[in-house]
Amino acid sequence: MKVDLFDFELPPERIALRPASPRDSARLLVLERDATRDLAVTDLPGQLRAGDMLVFNDTRVIPAQLEGIRGDAKIGATLHKREGPHRWRAFIRNARRIRDGEAIDFGGGVSAVASERQEDGSFALTFAGDEPVELLLERAGRMPLPPYIASKRAADARDLDDYQTMFAAEKGAVAAPTAALHFTPELMAALDAAGIGHATLTLHVGAGTFLPVKAEDTAAHRMHTEWGRIDPATAARLNAVRAAGGRVIAVGTTSLRLIESAADRDGIIRPFEGDTAIFITPGYRFKGVDGLMTNFHLPRSTLFMLVSALMGLDRMQAAYAHAIANGYRFYSYGDASLLLP
Questions:
Q1: Longest Cα pair distance anywhere in the chain, in angstroms?
Q2: pLDDT tens for residues 238-261?
Q3: Cα 249 to Cα 293: distance, rounded to the nearest angstrom
Q4: Cα gap 56→259, rounded to integer Å
Q5: For the chain, which residues make up each domain, given as ranges?
Q6: CATH homologous superfamily of domain 3-61+161-340?
Q7: Per-residue model confidence as pLDDT tens digits over 9-28
Q8: For domain 65-141, which CATH number applies: 2.40.10.240, 1.10.287.130, 1.10.10.60, 3.10.20.340?
Q9: pTM of the model as a whole
Q10: Residues sharing a CB contact under 8 Å with residue 311, sequence separation 6 or more, in sequence order
Q11: Do residues 171 and 134 make contact, with C-beta atoms less than 8 angstroms apart?
Q12: One biological process GO term for this chain (predicted)?
Protein backbone atom coordinates (compact mmCIF):
# COMPACT_ATOMS: atom_id res chain seq x y z
CA MET A 1 0.00 0.00 0.00
CA LYS A 2 1.09 3.57 -0.61
CA VAL A 3 2.42 5.19 2.56
CA ASP A 4 0.66 8.45 1.60
CA LEU A 5 -2.65 6.77 2.45
CA PHE A 6 -1.64 6.87 6.12
CA ASP A 7 -0.90 10.59 6.23
CA PHE A 8 -2.91 13.23 8.09
CA GLU A 9 -2.41 16.77 9.35
CA LEU A 10 -1.76 17.13 13.08
CA PRO A 11 -1.64 20.63 14.62
CA PRO A 12 1.53 20.90 16.77
CA GLU A 13 -0.48 21.96 19.79
CA ARG A 14 -2.13 18.54 19.89
CA ILE A 15 1.20 16.90 20.88
CA ALA A 16 1.23 16.29 24.64
CA LEU A 17 4.43 17.30 26.46
CA ARG A 18 3.33 16.00 29.87
CA PRO A 19 0.98 13.18 30.86
CA ALA A 20 -2.43 13.72 32.40
CA SER A 21 -2.50 13.89 36.20
CA PRO A 22 -3.69 11.63 37.66
CA ARG A 23 -2.75 9.22 34.89
CA ASP A 24 -6.20 7.66 34.55
CA SER A 25 -7.85 11.07 34.04
CA ALA A 26 -6.75 11.02 30.38
CA ARG A 27 -9.47 10.93 27.75
CA LEU A 28 -10.51 7.68 26.07
CA LEU A 29 -11.94 7.46 22.56
CA VAL A 30 -13.85 4.19 22.24
CA LEU A 31 -14.26 2.83 18.72
CA GLU A 32 -16.44 -0.13 17.93
CA ARG A 33 -17.43 -1.12 14.43
CA ASP A 34 -20.49 1.15 14.36
CA ALA A 35 -20.05 3.37 17.43
CA THR A 36 -17.78 6.16 18.67
CA ARG A 37 -17.79 7.35 22.29
CA ASP A 38 -15.86 10.12 24.02
CA LEU A 39 -15.06 8.97 27.55
CA ALA A 40 -12.23 8.95 30.11
CA VAL A 41 -9.77 6.19 30.97
CA THR A 42 -11.55 5.79 34.31
CA ASP A 43 -14.57 4.59 32.29
CA LEU A 44 -12.60 1.62 30.93
CA PRO A 45 -14.12 -1.05 33.25
CA GLY A 46 -17.58 -0.25 31.87
CA GLN A 47 -16.40 -0.70 28.27
CA LEU A 48 -15.17 -4.26 28.78
CA ARG A 49 -16.89 -7.47 29.86
CA ALA A 50 -16.34 -9.78 32.80
CA GLY A 51 -14.03 -12.51 31.57
CA ASP A 52 -12.00 -10.23 29.30
CA MET A 53 -8.25 -9.97 29.88
CA LEU A 54 -5.97 -6.97 29.45
CA VAL A 55 -2.38 -7.77 28.49
CA PHE A 56 0.38 -5.38 29.58
CA ASN A 57 4.03 -5.09 28.59
CA ASP A 58 6.20 -5.17 31.73
CA THR A 59 9.35 -3.83 30.08
CA ARG A 60 11.22 -1.09 31.93
CA VAL A 61 12.78 1.90 30.16
CA ILE A 62 16.51 2.29 30.71
CA PRO A 63 18.39 5.63 30.47
CA ALA A 64 19.47 4.75 26.95
CA GLN A 65 20.51 8.15 25.58
CA LEU A 66 24.18 9.02 25.84
CA GLU A 67 26.22 12.10 24.99
CA GLY A 68 29.92 11.59 24.36
CA ILE A 69 33.08 12.75 22.68
CA ARG A 70 35.30 11.15 20.03
CA GLY A 71 38.34 13.35 19.66
CA ASP A 72 36.94 16.85 19.28
CA ALA A 73 33.55 15.68 17.94
CA LYS A 74 30.37 15.53 20.02
CA ILE A 75 28.58 12.22 19.53
CA GLY A 76 25.03 11.30 20.56
CA ALA A 77 23.95 7.67 20.92
CA THR A 78 20.55 6.10 21.48
CA LEU A 79 20.74 2.41 22.33
CA HIS A 80 17.97 0.38 20.75
CA LYS A 81 18.72 -3.35 20.97
CA ARG A 82 20.93 -5.53 23.15
CA GLU A 83 23.26 -7.79 21.18
CA GLY A 84 25.30 -9.22 24.06
CA PRO A 85 26.26 -8.70 27.73
CA HIS A 86 28.29 -5.57 26.91
CA ARG A 87 27.15 -4.82 23.37
CA TRP A 88 24.20 -2.79 22.12
CA ARG A 89 23.10 -1.64 18.69
CA ALA A 90 22.72 2.15 18.72
CA PHE A 91 21.61 4.97 16.48
CA ILE A 92 24.37 7.58 16.35
CA ARG A 93 24.13 11.33 15.91
CA ASN A 94 27.11 12.81 14.06
CA ALA A 95 27.97 9.30 12.86
CA ARG A 96 30.12 10.63 10.00
CA ARG A 97 32.75 11.53 12.61
CA ILE A 98 33.16 7.88 13.69
CA ARG A 99 35.03 5.02 12.06
CA ASP A 100 34.90 1.34 12.95
CA GLY A 101 37.04 0.56 15.97
CA GLU A 102 37.04 4.05 17.45
CA ALA A 103 36.15 4.63 21.09
CA ILE A 104 33.58 7.14 22.35
CA ASP A 105 33.93 8.61 25.85
CA PHE A 106 30.51 9.12 27.47
CA GLY A 107 31.86 10.47 30.78
CA GLY A 108 31.56 9.00 34.24
CA GLY A 109 34.10 6.34 33.36
CA VAL A 110 31.83 5.00 30.60
CA SER A 111 33.22 4.36 27.13
CA ALA A 112 32.41 2.12 24.18
CA VAL A 113 34.01 1.07 20.90
CA ALA A 114 31.91 1.56 17.78
CA SER A 115 31.90 -1.09 15.05
CA GLU A 116 29.83 -2.69 12.29
CA ARG A 117 28.03 0.32 10.88
CA GLN A 118 24.81 -0.63 9.10
CA GLU A 119 22.88 1.03 6.28
CA ASP A 120 20.47 2.67 8.73
CA GLY A 121 23.41 4.54 10.29
CA SER A 122 23.49 2.44 13.45
CA PHE A 123 26.65 1.07 15.05
CA ALA A 124 27.35 -1.74 17.47
CA LEU A 125 28.68 -0.25 20.72
CA THR A 126 30.81 -2.54 22.89
CA PHE A 127 31.14 -1.08 26.38
CA ALA A 128 34.45 -1.29 28.23
CA GLY A 129 34.81 -3.06 31.57
CA ASP A 130 32.96 -5.82 33.37
CA GLU A 131 30.07 -3.83 34.86
CA PRO A 132 26.57 -4.53 33.47
CA VAL A 133 25.61 -1.95 30.87
CA GLU A 134 22.53 -1.03 32.92
CA LEU A 135 24.80 0.18 35.76
CA LEU A 136 26.90 2.19 33.32
CA LEU A 137 23.76 3.84 31.97
CA GLU A 138 22.67 4.83 35.46
CA ARG A 139 25.87 6.91 35.62
CA ALA A 140 26.04 8.30 32.11
CA GLY A 141 22.66 7.92 30.43
CA ARG A 142 19.42 9.88 30.44
CA MET A 143 15.80 9.02 29.81
CA PRO A 144 15.17 8.64 26.06
CA LEU A 145 12.14 10.84 25.50
CA PRO A 146 10.60 10.54 22.02
CA PRO A 147 11.95 13.07 19.52
CA TYR A 148 8.64 14.92 19.25
CA ILE A 149 8.89 15.73 22.98
CA ALA A 150 12.67 16.04 23.25
CA SER A 151 12.70 18.63 20.45
CA LYS A 152 10.42 20.87 22.54
CA ARG A 153 11.85 20.43 26.03
CA ALA A 154 14.64 18.61 27.86
CA ALA A 155 14.04 15.48 29.89
CA ASP A 156 13.85 16.21 33.62
CA ALA A 157 13.36 14.49 36.96
CA ARG A 158 9.60 14.16 36.43
CA ASP A 159 10.17 12.00 33.37
CA LEU A 160 11.98 9.39 35.46
CA ASP A 161 8.57 8.49 36.88
CA ASP A 162 6.23 9.77 34.16
CA TYR A 163 7.87 7.67 31.43
CA GLN A 164 7.60 4.36 33.32
CA THR A 165 4.42 2.32 33.59
CA MET A 166 3.23 0.86 36.89
CA PHE A 167 4.06 -2.58 35.45
CA ALA A 168 7.69 -1.77 34.58
CA ALA A 169 9.93 -4.58 35.85
CA GLU A 170 12.16 -6.07 33.14
CA LYS A 171 14.93 -3.61 32.20
CA GLY A 172 15.67 -3.26 28.51
CA ALA A 173 13.34 -0.85 26.69
CA VAL A 174 14.43 2.44 25.17
CA ALA A 175 10.84 3.62 24.76
CA ALA A 176 7.87 3.16 27.07
CA PRO A 177 4.83 1.03 26.18
CA THR A 178 2.84 4.20 26.50
CA ALA A 179 -0.75 2.90 26.52
CA ALA A 180 -0.05 1.43 29.95
CA LEU A 181 1.03 4.84 31.29
CA HIS A 182 -2.67 5.54 31.88
CA PHE A 183 -3.10 2.82 34.50
CA THR A 184 -3.13 3.38 38.25
CA PRO A 185 -3.65 1.05 41.23
CA GLU A 186 -7.15 2.50 41.62
CA LEU A 187 -8.05 1.71 38.01
CA MET A 188 -6.65 -1.82 38.33
CA ALA A 189 -8.80 -2.36 41.44
CA ALA A 190 -11.89 -1.23 39.54
CA LEU A 191 -11.05 -3.60 36.66
CA ASP A 192 -10.56 -6.48 39.11
CA ALA A 193 -13.92 -5.71 40.73
CA ALA A 194 -15.56 -5.83 37.28
CA GLY A 195 -14.17 -9.32 36.63
CA ILE A 196 -11.60 -8.14 34.07
CA GLY A 197 -8.30 -9.95 34.39
CA HIS A 198 -4.80 -8.96 33.43
CA ALA A 199 -1.56 -10.59 32.40
CA THR A 200 1.94 -9.40 31.50
CA LEU A 201 4.47 -10.22 28.81
CA THR A 202 7.79 -8.59 27.92
CA LEU A 203 8.76 -6.80 24.72
CA HIS A 204 11.80 -4.54 24.94
CA VAL A 205 10.72 -1.59 22.82
CA GLY A 206 13.44 -0.23 20.52
CA ALA A 207 14.09 3.27 19.23
CA GLY A 208 13.11 2.05 15.79
CA THR A 209 9.49 2.58 16.84
CA PHE A 210 10.04 6.33 16.27
CA LEU A 211 11.71 6.06 12.87
CA PRO A 212 9.67 7.47 9.98
CA VAL A 213 8.65 5.23 7.11
CA LYS A 214 10.81 6.54 4.30
CA ALA A 215 9.63 4.09 1.65
CA GLU A 216 6.83 5.11 -0.71
CA ASP A 217 5.15 1.70 -0.39
CA THR A 218 4.68 -0.36 2.76
CA ALA A 219 6.12 -3.42 0.98
CA ALA A 220 9.53 -1.72 0.90
CA HIS A 221 9.70 -0.88 4.62
CA ARG A 222 11.72 -3.07 6.98
CA MET A 223 11.03 -3.14 10.71
CA HIS A 224 13.80 -3.26 13.31
CA THR A 225 13.77 -6.39 15.45
CA GLU A 226 12.80 -6.31 19.12
CA TRP A 227 13.21 -9.03 21.74
CA GLY A 228 10.18 -10.42 23.52
CA ARG A 229 8.95 -13.24 25.75
CA ILE A 230 5.59 -14.85 26.56
CA ASP A 231 6.08 -17.59 29.13
CA PRO A 232 4.11 -20.87 28.96
CA ALA A 233 1.85 -20.00 31.90
CA THR A 234 0.84 -16.66 30.36
CA ALA A 235 0.19 -18.24 26.97
CA ALA A 236 -2.03 -20.84 28.64
CA ARG A 237 -4.00 -18.14 30.50
CA LEU A 238 -4.62 -16.15 27.32
CA ASN A 239 -5.80 -19.23 25.45
CA ALA A 240 -8.10 -20.17 28.34
CA VAL A 241 -9.71 -16.72 28.29
CA ARG A 242 -10.58 -17.02 24.61
CA ALA A 243 -11.75 -20.61 24.98
CA ALA A 244 -14.19 -19.45 27.68
CA GLY A 245 -15.60 -16.69 25.42
CA GLY A 246 -13.60 -13.80 26.82
CA ARG A 247 -11.56 -11.33 24.82
CA VAL A 248 -7.82 -10.74 24.87
CA ILE A 249 -7.30 -6.96 24.79
CA ALA A 250 -3.72 -5.85 24.20
CA VAL A 251 -2.69 -2.71 26.08
CA GLY A 252 -0.34 -1.08 23.60
CA THR A 253 0.87 -1.98 20.14
CA THR A 254 3.92 -3.68 21.66
CA SER A 255 1.76 -6.22 23.50
CA LEU A 256 -0.31 -6.74 20.37
CA ARG A 257 2.71 -7.29 18.12
CA LEU A 258 4.20 -9.89 20.47
CA ILE A 259 0.92 -11.78 20.86
CA GLU A 260 0.47 -11.85 17.10
CA SER A 261 4.07 -13.03 16.71
CA ALA A 262 3.33 -15.91 19.08
CA ALA A 263 -0.10 -16.93 17.72
CA ASP A 264 -0.40 -19.71 15.18
CA ARG A 265 -2.80 -19.67 12.24
CA ASP A 266 -5.50 -21.33 14.37
CA GLY A 267 -5.34 -18.52 16.95
CA ILE A 268 -3.50 -20.51 19.60
CA ILE A 269 -0.98 -18.33 21.44
CA ARG A 270 2.27 -20.27 21.87
CA PRO A 271 5.06 -19.57 24.36
CA PHE A 272 7.57 -17.26 22.71
CA GLU A 273 11.09 -16.05 23.37
CA GLY A 274 13.19 -14.30 20.78
CA ASP A 275 13.18 -11.52 18.21
CA THR A 276 10.20 -10.24 16.27
CA ALA A 277 10.03 -7.80 13.39
CA ILE A 278 6.34 -8.27 12.63
CA PHE A 279 4.91 -5.48 10.46
CA ILE A 280 1.11 -5.26 10.49
CA THR A 281 -0.68 -3.39 7.72
CA PRO A 282 -4.25 -3.48 6.33
CA GLY A 283 -5.06 -6.93 5.00
CA TYR A 284 -3.42 -8.66 7.96
CA ARG A 285 -5.59 -11.32 9.66
CA PHE A 286 -5.41 -10.98 13.42
CA LYS A 287 -5.05 -14.30 15.20
CA GLY A 288 -4.39 -13.74 18.90
CA VAL A 289 -6.02 -10.46 19.98
CA ASP A 290 -9.62 -9.26 20.05
CA GLY A 291 -9.02 -5.57 20.75
CA LEU A 292 -6.44 -2.92 21.53
CA MET A 293 -6.02 0.01 23.88
CA THR A 294 -3.47 2.43 22.47
CA ASN A 295 -2.48 6.08 22.26
CA PHE A 296 -2.77 8.26 19.15
CA HIS A 297 0.06 7.71 16.69
CA LEU A 298 2.16 9.66 14.21
CA PRO A 299 1.05 10.13 10.61
CA ARG A 300 2.69 7.75 8.13
CA SER A 301 3.92 5.57 11.02
CA THR A 302 3.92 1.80 11.30
CA LEU A 303 1.70 2.15 14.37
CA PHE A 304 -0.99 4.07 12.51
CA MET A 305 -0.79 1.35 9.86
CA LEU A 306 -1.33 -1.25 12.59
CA VAL A 307 -4.47 0.37 14.01
CA SER A 308 -5.76 0.83 10.46
CA ALA A 309 -5.28 -2.91 9.91
CA LEU A 310 -7.36 -3.59 13.03
CA MET A 311 -10.24 -1.17 12.42
CA GLY A 312 -9.99 -0.20 8.73
CA LEU A 313 -8.11 2.75 7.22
CA ASP A 314 -11.20 4.88 6.53
CA ARG A 315 -12.46 4.27 10.08
CA MET A 316 -9.16 5.33 11.63
CA GLN A 317 -8.74 8.39 9.42
CA ALA A 318 -12.22 9.51 10.48
CA ALA A 319 -11.50 8.70 14.14
CA TYR A 320 -8.28 10.70 14.13
CA ALA A 321 -10.03 13.64 12.47
CA HIS A 322 -12.63 13.44 15.26
CA ALA A 323 -9.89 13.31 17.91
CA ILE A 324 -8.09 16.33 16.46
CA ALA A 325 -11.30 18.35 16.15
CA ASN A 326 -12.28 17.51 19.73
CA GLY A 327 -9.00 18.37 21.41
CA TYR A 328 -7.53 14.95 22.15
CA ARG A 329 -3.84 14.94 23.07
CA PHE A 330 -1.53 12.87 20.86
CA TYR A 331 1.51 10.60 21.16
CA SER A 332 3.37 9.14 24.15
CA TYR A 333 2.02 11.43 26.88
CA GLY A 334 -1.35 11.89 25.20
CA ASP A 335 -4.83 10.41 25.48
CA ALA A 336 -5.93 6.86 24.65
CA SER A 337 -8.23 4.96 22.36
CA LEU A 338 -9.96 1.61 22.85
CA LEU A 339 -10.37 -0.24 19.56
CA LEU A 340 -12.90 -3.08 19.53
CA PRO A 341 -13.34 -4.44 15.97
A1: 63
A2: 999 999 999 999 999 999 999 999
A3: 7
A4: 11
A5: 3-61+161-340, 65-141
A6: QueA-like (3.40.1780.10)
A7: 999 999 999 999 999 999 99
A8: 2.40.10.240
A9: 0.93
A10: 31, 319, 339, 341
A11: yes
A12: tRNA queuosine(34) biosynthetic process
